[in-house]
């Protein structure tokens, strides 16, 4: 067991906890071969995996120079779940679940915030520091899109941020445009539309931004630039002293205009969710030890002391748990550690009871082996079918702390203890019923109040007490987030809709095909009848759209009623064909492009779309785009041959669903536009590279 040494007394050995619960080592050679098999460009220093009966975390041996081809792996008793002889080939297979990766700035879990305030030497300064990061993050997210509106390529890169494309192999459509507004924006940008000129594109960008702002406020995503999440591992060499940790990065960690490759000689905070006790966030000293330099993108904890640091963080261990690490000076300097509170013995007090009968104990009371098996299965199923109170207790604890204005009262500690026990209820064989829960609340006179920050909106009367007190999460959501979002959205709206801003519903490129056929109708009776029929169909569809939308089908892709109505009208529009008499004409039949494998892009469908656009672009342009957007985008792309004399590029739906913008290339293009080199060849952009502190080019593939 890691943590024991030969000079320990027997009493010390009894009190000593395993300092390496769930973790072991492997050779560097084996780590390289695993990485190669997985297709990784570099071998990570840590793998979360399973092999045979063991599961947990494996790190490379820092004492292994990796020069030989010696492949080995070790397991510790804390990792082994059963006795394994490794005879089966599957038991000798290293099954990787996760591995250490390049670290990025992280968001602050809202569970940590009350603890940070509770342990702050100056609570108001802690509020101000967190509020500063929240406001900055919101301005960056919302204001950043305003900056991106300056050019379609910038907006394309920005739109891709914060959401993943469909995993269906294609992007779902509603009518003739992608269902999600973010995808619709990308679709139109890819076709050559510009949000500073196209009214419909501007409007969906605005709607998307408003919805994103509401999500940002609801999620309370407070990004702390100088923070990250990293796997917790342990120092097997015993180099780190108790209270010391090491965090080194495989590449430069950039935050707030600075970059670091390691943290050394500074205090940092470490925590793990869920943080129920005030001791679940700890201040420790970050140091760098050269012999541990191979352990990058993980946080290395000391193996010295009587209790592992991971265990102090919400009962964590080293089998794959991640720690939130923060080195923001305003937050760290204002924080003081708390000792772990004394937890009440809820089992000894009878609120929870152990029930873990072994099969042998059942067999001793039953004459029949079949009966013993039946009783054992019945006992196991009955135990696992009991309702879980983990979520109920967790939510009530939040309400109690909200009412009591703190997280470290005797009642809060009791509920935190209960929650920590219920997390491992199945493993420990603990019984806990509704009666037990009610008795605990009654005995300790526990009461709670629904937090205002759980609501989408709230008045000051609801979240500000008579003495002026506001819970920190209420303050952040309703005072900081709401005012910041309102301010930035107003700037965004003024930039899109203000005086002097010229965007147009009209686009001559989309009416060219209509113009071509309209000019032929005086010379051809067939074409004249065709265009008359098209006009009538557009008029009918437009009238039906107005009636349906006026009847209450909210113009929002997230509402099922709207989606159903769009599909119904789109089916009518897309199925409209020339009359049989016109279809027999040599002038009309070729319009259907029988050779084309995609009927939606035949010349007939393009003509329909062009006609609908020409006749309805002013008063019914949302309908025009929802019913004919695919064809309009196709025509726009065909007209987008630019200054570089390059044609539009054909991409299949499956390939388009996996494409992502190259933000490095977008930034380079933006920089060249700023200095007037807009038409410079793309090959010249290869000169825009990044270098590390040693002058080595960084590859962001």
From TrEMBL:
MF-aspect GO terms: RNA binding; RNA-directed RNA polymerase activity
Claim: RNA-binding is one of the keywords in the record: yes
One Pfam match: RdRP
UniProt keyword Plastid present: no
Cellular compartments per GO CC: nuclear RNA-directed RNA polymerase complex
Catalytic reactions on record: RNA(n) + a ribonucleoside 5'-triphosphate = RNA(n+1) + diphosphate
GO biological process: siRNA processing
EC number: 2.7.7.48
Signal peptide residues on this chain, from the entry's feature table: none
Residue span, RDRP core domain: 11-480
UniProt cross-references to InterPro entries, sorted A to Z: RDRP, RDRP_core
Swiss-Prot/TrEMBL keywords: Nucleotidyltransferase, RNA-binding, RNA-directed RNA polymerase, Transferase
Family: Belongs to the RdRP family.
Name this polypeptide is given: RNA-dependent RNA polymerase
Protein source organism: Fusarium torreyae
């Amino acid at each position: 067991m890691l943590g024991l040494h030969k000079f320990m007394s027997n009493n010390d050995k009894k009190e000593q906890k395993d300092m390496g619960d769930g973790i072991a080592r492997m050779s560097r050679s084996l780590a390289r071969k695993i990485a190669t098999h997985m297709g990784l460009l570099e071998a990570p220093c840590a793998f979360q995996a399973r092999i045979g009966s063991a599961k947990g975390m494996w790190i490379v041996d820092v004492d292994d120079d990796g020069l030989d081809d010696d492949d080995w792996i070790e397991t510790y008793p804390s990792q082994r779940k059963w006795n394994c002889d490794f005879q089966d080939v599957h038991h000798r297979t290293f099954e990787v679940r996760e591995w250490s990766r390049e670290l990025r700035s992280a968001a602050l879990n809202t569970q940590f915030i009350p603890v940070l305030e509770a342990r702050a030497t100056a609570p108001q300064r802690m509020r101000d520091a967190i509020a500063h990061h929240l406001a900055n993050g919101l301005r960056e997210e919302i204001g950043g899109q305003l900056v991106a509106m300056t050019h379609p390529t910038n907006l394309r890169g920005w739109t891709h941020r914060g959401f993943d494309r469909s995993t269906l192999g294609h992007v779902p459509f509603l009518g003739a445009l992608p269902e999600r507004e973010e995808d619709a924006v990308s679709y139109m940008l890819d076709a050559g539309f510009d949000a500073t000129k196209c009214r419909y594109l501007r409007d969906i960008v605005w709607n998307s931004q408003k919805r994103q702002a509401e999500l940002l406020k609801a999620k309370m995503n407070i990004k702390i630039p100088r923070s990250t999440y990293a796997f917790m591992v342990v120092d097997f060499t015993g180099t780190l002293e108790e209270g010391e940790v090491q965090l080194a990065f495989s590449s430069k960690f950039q935050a707030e205009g600075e970059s670091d490759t390691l943290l050394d000689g500074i205090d940092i905070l470490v925590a793990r969710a869920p943080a129920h006790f005030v001791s679940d966030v700890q201040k420790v000293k970050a140091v760098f030890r050269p012999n541990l330099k191979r352990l990058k993108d993980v946080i290395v904890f000391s193996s010295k002391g009587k209790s592992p640091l991971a265990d102090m963080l919400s009962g964590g261990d080293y089998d794959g748990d991640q720690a939130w690490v923060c080195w923001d000076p305003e937050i760290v300097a204002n924080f003081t550690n708390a000792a772990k509170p004394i937890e009440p013995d809820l089992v000894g007090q009878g609120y929870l009871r152990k029930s873990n009968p072994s099969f042998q104990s059942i067999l001793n009371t039953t004459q029949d082996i079949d009966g013993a098996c039946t009783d054992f299965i019945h006992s196991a199923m009955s135990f696992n079918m009991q309702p879980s109170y983990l979520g109920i207790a967790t939510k009530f604890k939040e309400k109690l702390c909200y009412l009591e204005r703190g997280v470290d009262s005797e009642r809060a500690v009791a509920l935190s203890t209960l929650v920590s026990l219920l997390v491992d209820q199945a493993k420990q064989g603990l019984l806990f019923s509704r009666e037990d829960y009610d008795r605990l609340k009654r005995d300790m006179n526990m009461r709670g109040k629904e937090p205002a920050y759980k609501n989408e909106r709230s008045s000051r009367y609801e979240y500000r007490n008579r003495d002026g007190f506001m819970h920190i999460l209420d303050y952040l959501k309703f005072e900081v987030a709401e005012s910041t979002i309102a301010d930035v959205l107003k700037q965004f709206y003024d930039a899109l809709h203000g005086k002097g801003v010229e965007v147009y519903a009209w686009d001559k490129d989309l009416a060219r095909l209509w113009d071509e056929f309209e000019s032929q109708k005086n010379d051809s009776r067939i074409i004249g009848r065709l265009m008359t029929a098209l006009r009538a169909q557009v008029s009918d569809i437009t009238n039906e759209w107005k009636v349906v939308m006026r009847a209450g089908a909210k113009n929002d892709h997230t509402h099922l009623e709207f989606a159903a109505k769009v599909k119904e009208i789109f089916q009518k529009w897309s199925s409209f064909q020339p009359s049989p008499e016109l279809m027999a004409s040599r002038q009309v039949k070729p319009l259907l492009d029988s050779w084309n494998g995609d009927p939606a892009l035949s010349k007939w469908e393009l003509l329909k779309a062009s006609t609908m656009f020409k006749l309805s672009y002013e008063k019914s342009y949302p309908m025009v785009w929802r019913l004919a957007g695919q064809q309009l985008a196709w025509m726009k792309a065909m007209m987008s041959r630019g200054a570089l004399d390059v044609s539009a590029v054909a991409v299949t739906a499956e390939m388009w669903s996996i494409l992502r913008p190259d933000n490095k290339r977008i930034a380079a293009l933006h920089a060249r536009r700023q200095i007037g080199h807009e038409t410079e060849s793309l090959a010249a952009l290869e000169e825009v590279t990044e270098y590390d502190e040693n002058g080595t080019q960084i590859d962001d593939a």
